[in-house]
Amino acid sequence: MAGSRPPSRAPPPPPPPPPPPQRPFDSAGLTQQFEQLLRTRRLNNLTDRTRSRSGSPAPSEQRPRSSSSGLSTHHQPRPDAATTPSYSSLRNLPKIPSPPQDAASNRFKNFLLTLSVTPSKYENPGLLDEALAVIPLDRIYAEAEEESQVLQAQAASMEGNAKPQWGYQDCVIQALLRWFKGSFFRWVNNPPCPQCASPTIAHGITPPTPDEAARGAARVELYRCSYGQCRAYERFPRYGDVWALLQTRRGRCGEWADCFSMLCRAVGGRVRWVWSAEDRVWTEVYSEHQRRWIHVDACEGAWDNPRLYAEGWGWKLSYCIAFSNDGATDVTRRYIRNPATHGADRKKAPEEVLLWIINEIRRLRREPLSKEDRHRLIREDQREERELRSYVVSALATEIERMIQPASPSTASTAAPKLPARPTGAAQWMQARSENGVGEPGSDQPPREGH
Question: What is the CA radius of gyration of the chain?
Answer without folding.
Answer: 31
